[in-house]
Structures are given as C-alpha cells and as structure tokens.
Design a protein that fits this description.
The protein is an alpha/beta fold. Helix content is 63%, strand content 10%. It has 15 helices and 7 strands. The chain has a 7-stranded mixed β-sheet, sandwiched between helices. It is globular and about 75 Å long.
C-alpha cells in the first residue's frame, strides 16, 4: 500500500510534466511566429548555450543533477525546433522567381521542396515524368537545384544549357568537384555546390550542416546561404576538392567497412538477436550503424563508394593497414600493438577525450532505451 500511494504521486507529477511540456510547445509555436515575422533563425547557438548553463545551475541548486535537466531540455528543444517548422520562415529573397528542384520527388528533394515552400517560395518539381517540359519549366526559374542520383547528376547538368543567365544553378549531391565543374561548363550564370550532411529522416534543419562550395557569382546566391541559416542550418564553406577528400573518409570508407561487416555477418550466419542481447550499448550502436546501411537504398551507397577514383585508393590503403595489423596478430606481438595504439592516441591528442565524452552521452541514451523481455 505505501508503494502504491507513492506510485500514484509519481503518476501525478508525470502528468504535470506532460502538461508543462505541452505549454512549452505552445509557447515555442508563438516564438516561431515572432521569428518568422522578424526573419530570425530557428536556432541561435548563443541563446541555447546560455539557457542551458542557467538551467544547469538552477537544477544543481535544487539537488537535481545538471546532466539530467540538460538531457531533458535538449530532447525538448529538438522537438521544439521541429514544431517551429510549422510556422514557416521569413522569405529572404521575396523577388526570387520560381525555384525548380530536379529530383524533388526523391526523399531528400522533398525536404528542400518543403523548406522552400515554408519560406514562401514557389517551387516546381522536375523529374522523369515531366522531363520533356524541362526547358519550359526552367525558363521561369531563378534557382534550379539538381537533386538527382549521383550516377546521372553530371549528365543531367550537361543538359541544362538553356537556363536563364541570371538563374542560380546548384546541386545537392554528396560529391562536389565533378558536379561543380559540370555546372560551370553548362551554365554561364551563378553556380554553387551544396551538400546537406544529413539524410531525409531528420525532423528539423536546425543544427544540421550544409556544405557549400563557391562556383561563380557568390553575390547572387548569398541570399540562398542566408535562407538556409534561417532554417537553423550551419553553413560550412569549403573548396570542392577538399570536400571530396574529406568525404572519402567520412562517407565512402565508412560505408564500405559497414558493407563488408554486414557481408561478413551474413557469411558466418550470425545470430543477430543473440548478438543484440549480449552487446553493450557501444556494440549495439555499431550493429545499428551496419543495420541502418542495409535498411536503405543500395544504389545510393554503391554510387557514393564508386563516385570517385580516390575512394578506391583510400579503401586499398585501409586494406593494407588491416593486413599489417593481421600480421602483427599472427606474430602475437603484444608490445607492437600497444606501441601502435599509443601512437594513434598521441596523434589524436585532445580529440580522444572529446570523442570519449561525446560517446558516453550517446551510449547512456542508447542504454536508457533498452528494453528487456523475459524469455
């Protein structure tokens, strides 16, 4: 009976928490309207950092762990950013003509269609079904964004020789140098390469990184960069060749190793259910990353991995490091293993501790969601 009464009180407090969260989301909606009216970005890092610091101090003064309140607020803010989408965004360039998104029916293309429409722009979608009308549709465009699959992007771009000279031509593929050069060749007007560093399953553009590579006529597309900042995105400027070199490590190599790991699991007919049951959060997340890869479109990852020659060269270098490490194991050279381990630790410097701290938070969140059932 005492336990039952205490649980009833906890249920009542939980209900109050739900009511307060509902009120907070309502206020967020009103904040979104004000931001839209005044053209303010959905995400302001300084405001968020100051608010979290204040709440952490307030929590500690009341005996509540600071990390607990920060976890709650960060999760709440993520939902808040998504809610602010519903109020729309200020139109940075109200004089802009129609926006055409080639591949706007694709998953990522649809997100950009949605965001531009929420920002007050008129958007046309161009795809296979209406490609015979491409020249007519693009003749009214002030911005054309190519969001086609990587393997046909440059071919699509090469056909866009009829764009109005003042039209901005952009792409949103994960490879930048080839498409950027193709755009500069096909079009005489403003050109910019974009790479959204996220997938279509995001709830908000807030805090999402969008890379942009300058091509031509930067002053003509500066409004586009500012518009994406209003959405809450972080815009990162980099040269196209440098971008592609980084993507070799960030995307191609990691996707390939996940692919091989999945192939290996299938080859040994691993019991995935048992692996999950026995895995700590870190290994569960690693399995999740492999599973995430195989839950998506295979052509996309084939194109990313095969998109540039440098990817293969880097994968071969990785393979050689694997071979060297295997030789070390065959020789049972424990001292050499420790030496190499410490060498990499020294090379990483302070990033080792940063990665440890960040992963600890993610692992705790993954552990909190774990649910056990009696068997």
């Amino acid at each position: 009976m005492p336990l039952s009464k205490l649980r009833d009180k906890i249920d009542a407090v939980d209900q109050q928490i739900i009511d307060l969260l509902a009120e907070r989301l309502k206020l967020v909606g009103e904040v979104g309207e004000v931001k839209t009216e005044h053209g303010l970005p959905i995400y302001v890092p300084e405001r968020e950092a100051a608010m979290l610091a204040k709440r952490r101090a307030e929590a500690e003064s009341k005996g509540v762990p600071a990390d607990l309140i920060e976890d709650i607020l960060r999760r709440t803010m993520r939902e808040s950013y998504a809610s602010e989408n519903e109020t729309g965004f200020k139109t940075i360039n109200p004089e802009m003509k129609r926006i055409v998104i080639i591949g706007g029916n694709g998953l990522l293309g649809k997100r950009f269609v949605e965001m531009f429409e929420l920002s007050g722009y008129q958007v046309d979608i161009l795809g296979r079904a209406n490609w015979d009308q491409a020249e007519q549709i693009c003749s009214k465009a002030g911005l054309v964004i190519v969001g086609s699959p990587i393997d046909v992007t440059e071919d699509i771009i090469s056909q866009l020789t009829y764009l109005p000279e003042d039209c901005i031509l952009a792409d949103i593929t994960s490879v930048k140098d080839g498409p950027l050069q193709a755009m500069l060749m096909a079009h005489k007007g403003p050109v910019v390469g974009l790479h959204p560093m996220f997938g279509p399953d995001i709830s908000s553009f807030a805090k999402q990184v969008i890379v942009y590579c300058d091509g031509r006529g930067e002053d003509k597309y500066v409004w586009l960069i500012e518009q994406m900042k209003i959405w809450g995105s972080h815009l990162y400027n980099v040269q196209a060749p440098t971008h592609d070199e980084s993507m070799t490590l960030i995307q191609a190599l990691r996707h390939f190793t996940s692919f091989v790991y999945g192939v290996h699991l299938q080859g040994v007919d691993a019991d995935l259910e048992q692996l999950l049951d026995l895995s700590s959060p870190i290994y569960r997340l690693e399995l999740a990353m492999v599973g995430r890869l195989f839950a998506q479109e295979p052509a996309l990852y084939a194109d990313i991995i095969l998109s540039q020659k440098g990817n293969l060269e880097m994968i071969k270098r990785y393979h050689q490091h694997f071979a060297d490490a295997i030789e070390m194991l065959e020789n049972a050279d424990r001292d050499e293993f420790i030496k190499r381990f410490e060498s990499v630790t020294d090379w990483m410097g302070d990033y080792s501790q940063l990665f440890l701290d960040e992963s600890r938070v993610m692992l705790q969140q993954a552990h909190d969601k774990r649910h056990y059932e009696d068997k």
